[in-house]
Design brief:
563 residues, alpha+beta, Ribosomal Protein S5, domain 2, 3 domains, 32% helix
Length: 563
């Protein structure tokens, strides 16, 4: 008896579902792609319980006849591909013929579809891959597909699902990607019978980007005019370098209408921003690539997230040169010299700009009970407006005011945790438009943030409202400070324990200290306050606040005392 056997059709579909259907967002992706391929102008997505209870995708596309509807439930059945040669020039979003049968094999599935020219439509009921009923049914032209009780027959897969709010956030993000890829299509998203967003179709991509990011960021978009290269073109929008983040979640790349991830594109973006970004930060961008199908292979990933360019270096160069040109400042036109007249020169008032200190610790003159006195250092000056140079009894000392402020703030926050955190309410709460997945994380961790003096609440949609901050952080630029802080907590390198109190306190202290300009006049008082701390010789992250160079070591470097 042979050991190798052909898998039953249902089991084969469930295996295929493991590649195509990772989570509810995967189902939404495949069904919405089919709606767009069907020529839909309106797509409505409903979910319940994060998509595990229900996923419903309704469109006004071309619909299907009964025979085609039944064939769409067969594996490898597709209307988008006929020959192997066509695979090299496919332009539709879907083409494998595995999505619908894979979804039907792991859910309680219902399809209602009707062509505009037909009197009645077709309704098909499938239960875990088995067709239960096929009948005539009324309905509007287009297709409605429902998937209920996702993974009901695969408990091992179901137990790996995340919280409902997390799965819903991934679904929302997936729909926003489709909305950006197809700006002419209207998208409506409802979660547990509540409308999350309703995006009407627009004629210009910039209007869709503004719908997604809001008017505030939308007003800062830098247009990327279309640039052509052999067989390809690129256009889109960027945000200035000040909006760069540690993660790439604000980079949206679309190839022939398909959202993709590719290293050649991200490298091109990074090279285009070279000289404008701090190391480790990534720019925000929305780019649309159009390319001859023969120059790209879209059949390299089961979920079609990745592609393979035949000329990746040309893609990278096209993007880097285009982005660099957009960021290059326009040449300054010199004003013409004033013409000589007999009119006496107009006297104008002189204005002096002053950059206020953005975020600082409370006044160092606040009375404290000293634990120890600072060593007897003589302040000499500053090194490149960053470090304070001092003389000690044994040699030379370099003092880092930023690390000192980090330590002072960190210990104030730590003491506040044990003695009762003092907070300051913001007169006007600050609002932040976030990625739905980031918003979900922050709302789930709001008690941890509150313990560190940061009160956050949902404000509707994808907006987070911040109502208070720790009292030891002053209000020079709270929005910029919080923007950096939230980015660090969400996407910083230390993902594990990112909302533990010590991590939040360190992030608050470091971000606040970074926004302060060191001043020589404050060095003595700051040094005195530093030595009231338990650990004055290191900042919040452990790096030194003071470094001493012994006189003997200095003499040795200059060859003094030899022989």
């Amino acid at each position: 008896m042979p050991l190798v056997k052909i898998l039953p059709d249902i089991l084969a579909s469930q295996v295929a579902a493991g590649e195509v259907v990772e989570r509810p967002a995967s189902v939404v992706k495949e069904l919405v792609e089919n709606s767009i391929d069907a020529g839909a102008k309106t797509v409505t997505v409903d979910i319940e319980r994060g998509g595990v209870g229900l996923i419903r995708v309704a469109d006004d596309g071309c619909g299907m006849a009964r025979e085609d509807a039944l064939l769409s439930l067969e594996r490898h059945a597709t209307s988008k591909l006929r020959t192997a040669a066509e695979l090299a020039s496919v332009l539709t979003l879907g083409f494998r013929g595995e999505a619908v049968p894979s979804i039907a094999s792991v859910a309680k599935f219902r399809m209602l579809t009707r062509r505009a020219e037909d009197v009645s439509g077709t309704e098909i009921i499938v239960d875990g891959g088995k067709v239960r009923d096929v009948r005539d049914a009324g309905g509007a032209p287009g297709t409605v597909i429902e998937a209920r009780s996702l993974f009901f027959n695969m408990p091992a897969r179901r137990k790996f699902m995340r919280a409902e709010s997390t799965e819903a956030a991934h679904v929302e993000q997936q729909i926003r990607l489709h909305a950006l890829a197809a700006p002419g299509v209207s998208f409506r998203f409802r979660k547990d019978d509540k409308v999350v967003f309703d995006l009407p179709g627009v004629t210009n991509a910039v209007d869709r980007v503004r719908q997604i990011v809001g008017n505030e960021l939308g007003g800062e978009l830098v247009a990327v005019p279309e640039r052509l290269a052999p067989g390809m073109s690129v256009s889109g929008f960027l945000l200035p370098a000040k909006h760069a983040r540690k993660g790439r979640r604000h980079q949206f790349i679309f190839l022939n209408g398909r959202a993709i991830e590719d290293s050649a594109v991200t490298k091109g973006l990074a090279e285009g921003f070279r000289g404008n970004l701090q190391e480790g930060l990534h720019p925000a961008a929305w780019l649309w690539l159009e390319m001859e199908p023969q120059l790209v292979d879209v059949n390299v990933h089961p979920a079609k997230r990745e592609v393979r360019f035949h000329r990746p270096f040309e893609v990278r160069d096209l993007i880097s040169q285009t982005v660099a040109d957009c960021l290059r400042p326009a040449p300054v036109k010199r004003p013409e010299p004033p013409r000589e007249t007999n009119t006496p020169p107009e006297t104008r008032p002189t204005f002096h700009s002053h950059q206020p200190e953005l975020v600082s610790v409370p006044s160092v003159e606040t009375p404290v009970t000293p634990k120890r006195r600072a060593p007897d250092f003589r302040i000499i000056g500053m090194l490149q407006e960053r470090y304070v140079i001092m003389e000690s009894a044994d040699g030379l000392v370099l003092f880092d005011p930023k690390a000192a402020r980090e330590r002072i703030l960190f210990e104030k926050l730590s003491n506040g945790r044990t003695e009762g955190m003092e907070t300051q309410s913001l007169l006007v709460p600050l609002l932040f438009e976030l990625d739905p997945r980031d918003l979900d994380v922050l709302l789930r961790e709001r008690m941890a943030l509150l313990e560190a003096g940061i009160e956050v609440e949902a404000f509707g949609g994808n907006t987070l409202q911040v109502r208070s901050l720790p009292a030891c952080v002053s209000m020079g630029d709270p929005h910029g400070f919080l923007d950096d802080l939230l980015e660090e907590l969400l996407h910083g390198p230390a993902a594990a324990g990112r909302f533990a109190f010590d991590r939040i306190a360190k992030a608050v202290a470091m971000k606040a200290a970074q926004r302060v300009t060191p001043r020589l006049a404050e060095a003595a008082a700051l040094l005195e306050e530093l030595f009231h701390c338990d650990l004055p010789y290191c900042g919040a992250d452990g790096r030194p606040s003071l470094t001493e160079y012994n006189r003997k070591d200095i003499d040795r470097r200059f060859g003094i005392g030899r022989g």
